């Protein structure tokens, strides 16, 4: 806990058998109260390893429902456990768990409602292995979203996020996509309710066992981000109404 806030780490997993143990062992349990791992029908040994590590809450899907759907299960369970602060940490060891205290501190001390671990604020995203096409698309999409959504974020596409649970309770995240664009929809919803969003520098690792979507799915995600930005813009103008913002108006 920090300031008597219950801190829960959620790990949406898919074929993370090679990295989940290393990730788990770096979680700072001097402040983290609980860990949830949701497995999206992995074909490897992820679930058995998670149970061997002593992760108390290991939830499994009976079929693969997608990255966004996996997060929905994570957040539902974290709120069920009465978490005050929820950190979404990928179990593929791409993001370091060592930043959890810094991210949680900003939320626990009422500085921010949401904190993002930004790869762009750190030096050398490309040097650390980010494919150049992903870096360029990241910069373009972020600029597009900042303009249409009147924000000043360095990136919208990091998978490392810390939330005040009260913020998630205000958002109908279950109305979002089950695919990768879920992340972007959730962040757009946070912007829509004027959540205080902060960022910290977060170097990310790119290696063979780290999860990464391929070029084709990256293109699909990119078009999804453009759609979310336009939906946000027109919803704010009052021209159209969209389901993901329905409960926020």
What's the total number of strands?
Answer: 7
How far from one another are the termini? 33 Å
Radius of gyration: 17 Å
Net shape: globular
Strand order within the widest beta sheet:
3-2-1-4-6-5-7
Number of domains: 1
> What's the CATH architecture?
Alpha-Beta Complex
H and E string: EHEHEHEHEHEHHEH
Give the amount of beta strand, in percent. 5-15%
Q: Can you identify the CATH superfamily? A: Spore Coat Polysaccharide Biosynthesis Protein SpsA, Chain A
Contiguous runs where pLDDT drops below 50 for at least 5 residues: none
What's the total helix number?
Answer: 8
From the 3D structure, determine the CATH topology: Spore Coat Polysaccharide Biosynthesis Protein SpsA, Chain A
- Main beta sheet, described? 7 strands, mixed
Describe this structure in words.
A 7-stranded mixed beta sheet has the order 3-2-1-4-6-5-7, sandwiched between helices. The chain starts with 6 loop residues before the first strand and ends in a 12-residue tail after the last helix. It is globular and about 50 Å long. It has 249 residues and is of the alpha/beta class. It has helices spanning 20-25, 46-52, 67-80, 100-108, 132-149, 165-169, 182-192, 215-237; strands at residues 7-13, 34-39, 57-60, 85-88, 114-118, 161-164, 197-201. Helix 5 (132-149) runs parallel beside helix 8 (215-237). Strand 1, helix 1 and strand 2 (34-39) form a beta-alpha-beta unit. The mean pLDDT is 94. The chain has a single domain (7-248), classed as Spore Coat Polysaccharide Biosynthesis Protein SpsA, Chain A (Alpha-Beta Complex), CATH 3.90.550.
